[in-house]
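Fill in residues.
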């Protein structure tokens, strides 16, 4: 019978072996971690060509390797830049675009004449319902960045009377003022926001503009920022943006939730209010942070991204459980890549009001197309 082989390991050799193995294991873990990060943090990686083409039998194919696209005109300056970069990395895929408004984003997909739909905001509930009624599932919204300060206007946010001593507010606090049902209690008095003195004992008078203007009022989107909960019965609904701002200018205890607004200059093509100079000294924009102790945004073009900034992106028709056409998946990856995020974050696009995705967001968006 063969004798068993015995291996003797001295304490010294055991220690060296253990350390060597531990070092190797640590190196492997670091490599795996780096690889995982590279796979998910797509915004740090340049797009690499997939050499894709557009199928000839798709309803949106209007010419050889040319897809028809319908979407929002606000995004034209951005997508002009993106199209130039796309042509450099995927020269065999072309687009014919009609960019006239965000409503075209979903409408084009429902008609099946559009390959994807650029959109300068989030989807509205009626739009998602319209799509779902047609296909039986919701559209896939791929967020690629933000439109925080269009045309140099202040971000969507909170305005109060200039005499109010409040210095800042969080997104959760704003949600607890304008909506109800958070589970943590509604905010009804200024003292709950840290305001002291005579202001602290007085109830907050919240104002919101009714959704009567397709250009300015985006009530559903504002509510979505607050978790989709219903507005509180304490809210006073006003017919126009001018009426809302004027109310806060006259009400020391008022607070208004406003879409993009500029109290310095007339918004070209949007409003010609005659009393803008009067409003300016009587109201103020309240800086907001995502959470207590977080970075405050003053809503300006040069400040940090505002928590209520509107998303920008594209809608696509992805059938649940089925892969996207290779060219469309490649285009989605392109939009999340360093190439595009650098363009969105460039000084030129920053002046228009666009902002790139926040750290970690691209990985979440990437899951939508996997």
């Amino acid at each position: 019978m063969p004798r068993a082989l015995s291996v003797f390991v001295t304490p010294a050799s055991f220690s060296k072996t253990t350390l060597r193995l531990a070092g190797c294991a640590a190196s492997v873990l670091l490599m795996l971690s780096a690889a995982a990060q590279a796979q998910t943090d797509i915004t740090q990686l340049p797009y690499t060509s997939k050499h894709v083409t557009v199928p000839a039998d798709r309803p949106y194919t209007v010419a050889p390797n040319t897809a028809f696209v319908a979407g929002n005109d606000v995004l034209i300056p951005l997508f002009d830049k993106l199209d130039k970069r796309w042509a450099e990395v995927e020269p065999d895929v072309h687009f014919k675009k009609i960019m006239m408004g965000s409503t075209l984003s979903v409408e084009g997909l429902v008609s099946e004449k559009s390959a994807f739909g650029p959109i300068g905001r989030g989807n509205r509930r009626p739009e998602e319902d319209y799509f779902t009624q047609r296909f039986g599932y919701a559209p896939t919204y791929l967020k690629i960045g933000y439109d925080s300060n269009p045309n140099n206007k202040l971000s969507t946010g909170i305005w109060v009377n200039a005499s109010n001593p409040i210095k800042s507010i969080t997104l959760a606090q704003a949600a607890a003022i304008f909506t109800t049902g958070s589970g943590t209690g509604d905010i009804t008095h200024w003292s709950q926001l840290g305001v002291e003195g005579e202001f602290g004992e007085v109830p907050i008078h919240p104002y919101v503009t009714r959704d009567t203007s397709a250009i300015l009022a985006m009530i559903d989107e504002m509510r979505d920022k607050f978790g989709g909960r219903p507005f509180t019965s304490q809210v006073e609904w006003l017919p126009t943006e001018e009426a809302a701002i004027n109310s806060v200018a006259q009400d020391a205890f008022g607070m208004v939730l406003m879409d993009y607004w500029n109290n310095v200059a007339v918004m070209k093509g949007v409003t010609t209010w005659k009393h803008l100079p009067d409003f300016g000294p009587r109201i103020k924009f309240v800086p907001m942070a995502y959470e207590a102790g977080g970075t405050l945004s003053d809503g300006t073009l040069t400040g940090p991204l505002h928590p209520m900034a509107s998303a920008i992106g594209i809608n696509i028709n992805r059938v649940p459980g089925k892969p996207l056409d290779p060219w469309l998946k490649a285009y989605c990856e392109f939009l999340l890549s360093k190439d595009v995020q650098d363009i969105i974050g460039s000084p030129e696009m920053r002046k228009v009001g666009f902002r790139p995705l926040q750290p970690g967001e691209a990985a979440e968006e990437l899951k939508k197309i996997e």
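Residues 154-289 form a domain with the D-Maltodextrin-Binding Protein; domain 2 fold (CATH 3.40.190.10).
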